[in-house]
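Annotated sample (chain length 180).
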Amino acid sequence: MALIPIEFRNVKYPSGEYKPTAGVSIAYVSNKEAMDKIDIVEQNFAKLQMNIQNKMKNLRKKENIVLHWEIGDEVYRFFKETEDAGFLLEFKISTLADFIGMSRSFWYSHLKFRTMHPTKDSVSKNIAWFMYVELIKIQDDEKRKDLELQIVDGKIKRPTELRLLKSKEGLSEARSEILS
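Output written by the structure step:
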């Protein structure tokens, strides 16, 4: 089944209030079933906004790595539910930044974090978010897990140490490719 592309736009309602509204191609507007599903996607997006904004308030009060995971999970599940309903949200990261706030890199990091850690239990509460931001940049799962263990064991304490290790590994890999 092909997914129907949708895009959220800020629409001014007669009450003067602006609300994010899902827009689709005119070809799908005459399909009542699709329009009903779009209404549900809009309701889910409004719920997502509210839930994330509440989590963000708590995040500002106290750094909590599990809360970062929950933010990523909320967004991940919204995207999955939207696709399960038959829609492909265009400009996903930009939509989050535009309607919920924060930067695109914030949303990218949280989605990547959630994808890399499919369960809350797979997240180490002994690793700070700023360290995870560096870890999610590492593509190799085994290297990343090894570095996570080194952070938990106290062998790596600062993001600069992590970046240095990443760059040394990158240089070693580049050298071995050149020599082979």
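Annotation: The CA atoms of residues 72 and 114 lie 5 Å apart.
Annotation: The chain has two domains: 1-123, 124-180.
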